[in-house]
Amino acid sequence: MAFNLIPKEIKFFDCLTLQAENTVKAIEYFKQAVKNGAIDEEVVKKVRDYEHEGDTLCHEIVDMLNRTFITPLDREDIYALANTLDDVLDLINAMSNRMKLYKLDPRDEYFTQFIDTIDQSVIALSNAVKHLHDNKRQRRVLDHCIEINRLENLGDILREKAISHLFETEKDPIMVIKWKEIYEVAEGTLDTCEHVAKMIESIMVKHG
User: Fold this and answer.
1) pLDDT for res 208
2) What is the dihedral of CA 8, 10, 11, 16, to 10 degrees?
3) End-to-end alpha-carbon separation of the chain, Å?
4) Which of 91, 115, 163, 190 could form a disulfide with 155 if both were Cys (CB 3.0 to 4.6 A apart)?
5) Domains recognised in the chain with CATH numbers
């Protein structure tokens, strides 16, 4: 195996940025579909395409790690960051699949709030990743991470309100099970965004 001794800073950071931007495209497309009130096969396929693109970018990063001797960040941090970014997109894809499978109305009040919050979190995450390589913008990166944490806290509150309202108003136990799962996946997406933000903060401490 041939190793490259020159740090591939631009390529690693570029691929991570592409990963984050692809996730933004996925959630914004899904958000529009939710607003339109229909999660059909076309929507599911499009979100799945974004998820496949995310997988490809993640594999490319792992391949670069295997071929590069010196990396701009600790290689385990790059690996973990790439995989956790991929997890965010996997969860968005899971929501799309389950909404169609369960035949649920995406215009549900709490679900639309979740999607808007996830959208904000993913955009903040993308901005943090985009500036991670720039030592002059570390304060800006940290601000994005703080915003992601704030949005995750909102997600916790929203989950409690949504499930409480569900138990109070929904008489069909099957619908309760379906929506409870959807709310928990949505909140889990925000948790994963926060996990990425904490990883970024840890990287900043190491290299600050």
Assistant:
1) 63
2) 120
3) 33
4) 190
5) 9-207 (1.20.58.220)
